[in-house]
Amino acid sequence: MSAARSLSAGTLAFDALLDSPSSTLRAQSRMLALPLVDNYVGLRATAKLTRRSASVRDGVAFVEPVSSNGAAVAAASVAAPKEAEKKTEKAPPARQPQAGSSPQAQKDFKDMQTGGVDQDSTCSVTVVGASGDLAKKKIFPALFALFYEGYLPKHFTIYGYARSKMTNEQLRDMISTTLTCRIDQRENCGQKQEDFLKRCFYHAGQYDSEDSFKELDAKLREQEGDRTANRVFYLSIPPNIFVDVARCSSRAASSSNGYTRVIVEKPFGRDLQSSGELSQGLAEHLSEDQIYRIDHYLGKELVENLSVLRFSNLIFEPLWSRQFIRNVQIIFSEDFGTEGRGGYFDNYGIIRDIMQNHLLQLLALLAMEPPVSLAAEDIRNEKVKALRSMKPIRLEDVVVGQYKEHTSKSGVSYPAYTDDKTVPSNSITPTFSCIAMFIDNARWDGVPFLMKAGKALNDKRAEIRIQFRHVPGNLYKNSFGTDLDKATNELVMRVQPDEAIYLKINNKVPGLGVRLDRSNLNLQYAERYKKKEFPDSYERLILDVINGDKRLFIRDDELAAAWKLFTPLLKELEEKQVAPELYPYGSRGPIGAHYLAAKYNVRWGDQSV
Ligand SMILES: NC(=O)C1=CN([C@@H]2O[C@H](COP(=O)(O)OP(=O)(O)OC[C@H]3O[C@@H](n4cnc5c(N)ncnc54)[C@H](OP(=O)(O)O)[C@@H]3O)[C@@H](O)[C@H]2O)C=CC1
Ligand SMILES: O=C1O[C@H](COP(=O)(O)O)[C@@H](O)[C@H](O)[C@H]1O
Questions:
Q1: Ligand 2 in contact with 353 (CB < 6 A)?
Q2: Which ligand is nearest to the CA of 136?
Q3: Which ligand sits closest to the CA of 235?
Q4: Which atom from ligand 2 is nearest to the alpha carbon of 462?
């Protein structure tokens, strides 16, 4: 066999070795391959280039057209080229921080890679569903915080839009009750609030009326004058009216000379089919470029730090594989029930509400291969690959639970989920679930990824735990007693509350003799970054929309991959009417979670602290 033929026949093997998570294997294969290496690298590089310009989604190959600013124009544009051409947004010119903003804000500003809006253009954010809970609780306060920090462009306008009748003044009163100056020592906070509120307006209108949006358009134009007008519409409304609003806003209130971007809140459907229909409905009126599907967990400080930790420290990435990691746990818990949102929740349940989106996004970020760059499409390509490599979820790897009434020792009574008046008394919707998942690729083969999410549990937390394998031939094994599991390293990223990253290690207790102790190498954010306040995830994400940075938003194929993974399980649970295991309000959740973990030789990290 000629060298070229044997090389070509062996390409897969070389690929596997050179891509192997094992540094030893990689090093050995490099030595073996040395004489052939020039030839091989050439072949492999060609293959990579080809892979980069084409992608495979749901088994169909898409060639990614590249937009003028270098970003790939995603699937909707491919699917509907004529519509997409019309609606592909213009890239905004470069943007500066607002005059008078803090030096830190100015510095952070420079650090942002995605320049946005120039000082002569205007930017409006229309909050559709302004009378609702999310708008009051999160969106308006986030916009104020951005204004306070000087991140909003000089000429900006905020519009509230909903059916409720309200005057501008009433909207301002409503908003002002939720604005807070998060740091006591902040200067001019009151003045800043007044300045902010002056820029807030309200328009009452129907969600399916182009005329109402035309009226809004006229009002926006008054504010915009003859400047370049960039417009953001934040759809903070129930999903059944997303498409109506996309249609009316795009036909009657799109910017004629700047960008028009639309933020879409979850839930993006209930399953693969409904999510596909929703995506198709939106794609009739908007290009994929214009759609920002928000998952607020991606805007959390610790989640942003996950990639930094992994890719900018030498010590983690070499360990990031089945060779060293025994299991990964992604845990979400709340110490309150569905209070006030039972009507919504009963139609979705904890798997759709938290796991299919927030927790799966964390998993994808953690498990993805190193992206080619930090560009949005490069990161999202890797996330999609990780999601598409996941094994189907098996019912026997799933536990579901529902909270029941509980009276504490002091006599305080907590309701059952089904006590909520908006929830049917015979509901079997899970308020708790844990799932063992597996990724079928070279890096993660056989490593259990355990997800756990629940409401009305004993504490409120969101964290990622990475438990490492035992130290081979551990010289100190006799110091750990019989339970070697207790001596393994564990890396914990606590997303909330009290953001922290800590690594559990073994060390010697000071003194004579050798006694070992478990302790934490601990990065407590509050301690390390005393003077810093952490922006709410909505601040980061809204700013990204203004700047056109899609890194932290869900792409259409990513959404489809997530639903493809969960839909069969959700169908099976519903068809088989799987009854949830009841757990008392305020407890640690169903005991089944421990059996599931034990099946894979895993001990929940959050239960041992
Ligand atoms: N609240 C939260 O914590 C979170 C919410 N979300 C998502 O954000 C979006 C907004 O949430 P939230 O503010 O809680 O929602 P709301 O139920 O408060 O609805 C927002 C506004 O939409 C209008 N609206 C409500 N129901 C209907 C309806 N059936 N038909 C037409 N209009 C309606 C109402 O305004 P009006 O009557 O004045 O027109 C309401 O003020 C939803 O998609 C939700 O799933 C996501 C994460 C968390
Ligand atoms: O999306 C949702 O998230 C919240 C939890 O968000 P957090 O930022 O407070 O952790 C959850 O309560 C809600 O049910 C869900 O829809």
A1: yes
A2: 1
A3: 1
A4: 10
89 CB under 6 A from ligand 2? no
At residue 484, does pLDDT exceed 70?
Answer: yes
Domain ranges for the chain, please list them. 3-54, 89-265, 299-472+550-607
Mutate to test the pocket of ligand 2, among 354, 355, 357, 457 (most ligand atoms within 8 A of CB): 354
Contact between 521 and 503 under an 8 Å Cβ cutoff? The reply is: yes
Q: Which CATH architecture has domain 299-472+550-607?
A: 2-Layer Sandwich (3.30)
Q: At 583, which helix (H) or strand (E)? A: strand 581-584
Q: What is the mean pLDDT of residues 281-300?
A: 96
Residue-level pLDDT at 156:
95
| Residues 587, 432 contacting (CB under 8 angstroms) | no
Ligand 1: centre distance to CA 129 (Å): 6
Provide the pairing of β-strand 413-414 with 406-407: antiparallel
pLDDT digits (tens, 9 = 90+) for 458-483: 999 999 999 999 999 888 888 877 77
Residue 358 among the catalytic residues: yes
In degrees, rounded to 5, the angle at the alpha carbon of residue 436 between the alpha carbons of residues 431 and 439 is 130
Q: How far is the CA of 128 from the centre of ligand 1 (A)?
A: 9
* Pairing mode of beta strands 291-294, 553-554: antiparallel
Amino acid at 125: V
pTM above 0.95, yes or no: no
Give the residue whose CA is nearest to atom 14 of ligand 2.
353
As assigned by CATH, the class of the 89-265 domain is alpha beta
Catalytic residue among 203, 285, 296, 358: 358
CA angle centred on 298, ends 295 and 302, rounded to 5°: 150
Distance 531 CA to ligand 2 centre (A): 27
Distance, C-alpha 520 to centroid of its chain: 27
Q: For residues 3 and 201, which has the higher predicted lDDT (pLDDT)?
A: 201
Residue spans of beta strands (DSSP E) within 185-272 = 200-204, 229-235, 260-264
Pocket of ligand 1 (CB under 6 A): 129, 131-135, 162-164, 207, 236-239, 241, 265-267
User: How many whole angstroms separate alpha carbon 174 and alpha carbon 483?
Assistant: 57
Q: What is the pLDDT of residues 567-595, one digit of tens each?
A: 999 999 999 999 999 999 999 999 999 99
Q: Do 150 and 97 contact (CB within 8 A), yes or no?
A: yes
Indicate which ligand has the atom closest to the C-alpha of 344.
Answer: 1
Q: State yes or no: ipTM above 0.95.
A: yes
